[in-house]
Amino acid sequence: SVVLSEAEKIYVLHGVQDDLRTDGRGCEDYRCIEVETDVVSNTTGSARVKIGHTDVLVGVKAEMGTPKLERAGEGYLEFFVDCSANATPEFEGRGGEELGAEIAFMLYKIFDNRSSIDLESLCIQEREHCWVLYVDVLLLECGGNLFDTISVAVKAALFNARIPKVRILEDDEGGKDFELSDDPYDCVRLNVVNVPCIVTLSRIGHRHVVDATLQEEACSVASLLIAVTSKGILTCMRKIGKGSLDPESIFEMIETGKRVAKSLHTSLQSALNQEESLGKKRQKIGFLR
């Protein structure tokens, strides 16, 4: 977080009221989003996303595990969020643990249903074996709008994930053995069409903005986090901040979030498809910029 003087807060507030923010954007505009997938070699899928000065790296690792008792025919996802002390001095020591747990809780809420991802496709043998997707989120730099950036990076990493196909072999005595394909093209891809993205709407004065900067977050009394699919379906909602929101404002923010999320999903999917179409020809940037 940043500390602003009263004059700076008034300047930001007046700009938002006139639909002209300090960086020239309108209230419903995102900053430039940079997405790159397949940036970590020893993962099942990975992605790095930058929105403004917020930089996030996500790695997905598929490992064999045992299905949960209540969902014997499905695989599942596990989330771990690491807030690097390099992102901001506030994360030094145990400063980032609380925020990391809060983000992980939100991700669990989003994916704790059968509609986001086809979890049955992760089952290898009912009640016995399944794929467990360990999703590791590393926050490299913090420049506002963390939740949106992380949700975009998670979706991109899941899109990039390639899970090896498994064949179950039976011997003469009825024992079962597993054979994993070592062909990189003989794999299972996840359908991420219904994976939602988080849109954070920050209340500033009598209006709300998307993709708030650190300065705008300092002027916001409350924010609404909504998870929306590419079809505009709201799957999860949460309010953060000490201020209050009246019902009329919440409904307005939800409608804005749905509208913005549809555009976000379309742009993200277009960028991912374009990057994949380049194949081996694409130039990998990674951490060199």
UniProtKB/TrEMBL annotation:
It is found in: Cytoplasm; Nucleus, Nucleolus. InterPro entries: ExoRNase_PH_dom1 (IPR001247), ExoRNase_PH_dom2 (IPR015847), ExoRNase_PH_dom2_sf (IPR036345), Exosome_comp_Rrp42_subfam (IPR050590), PNPase/RNase_PH_dom_sf (IPR027408), Ribosomal_Su5_D2-typ_SF (IPR020568). Its main location: cytoplasm. One of its GO terms (molecular function) is RNA binding. GO terms for biological process: rRNA processing. SUPFAM superfamilies: Ribonuclease PH domain 2-like (SSF55666), Ribosomal protein S5 domain 2-like (SSF54211). Keywords: Acetylation, Cytoplasm, Exosome, Nucleus, RNA-binding, rRNA processing. The keyword Transferase does not apply. Residues 30-164, 194-259 form the Exoribonuclease phosphorolytic domain. It comes from the Eukaryota. One of its GO terms (cellular component) is cytoplasm. The keyword Acetylation applies. Pfam families: RNase_PH, RNase_PH_C. Component of the RNA exosome core complex (Exo-9), composed of EXOSC1, EXOSC2, EXOSC3, EXOSC4, EXOSC5, EXOSC6, EXOSC7, EXOSC8 and EXOSC9; within the complex interacts with EXOSC2 and EXOSC4. The catalytically inactive RNA exosome core complex (Exo-9) associates with the catalytic subunit EXOSC10/RRP6. Exo-9 may associate with DIS3 to form the nucleolar exosome complex, or DIS3L to form the cytoplasmic exosome complex. Exo-9 is formed by a hexameric base ring consisting of the heterodimers EXOSC4-EXOSC9, EXOSC5-EXOSC8 and EXOSC6-EXOSC7, and a cap ring consisting of EXOSC1, EXOSC2 and EXOSC3. Belongs to the RNase PH family. This is Exosome component 7. It comes from Xenopus tropicalis. The gene is LOC496941.
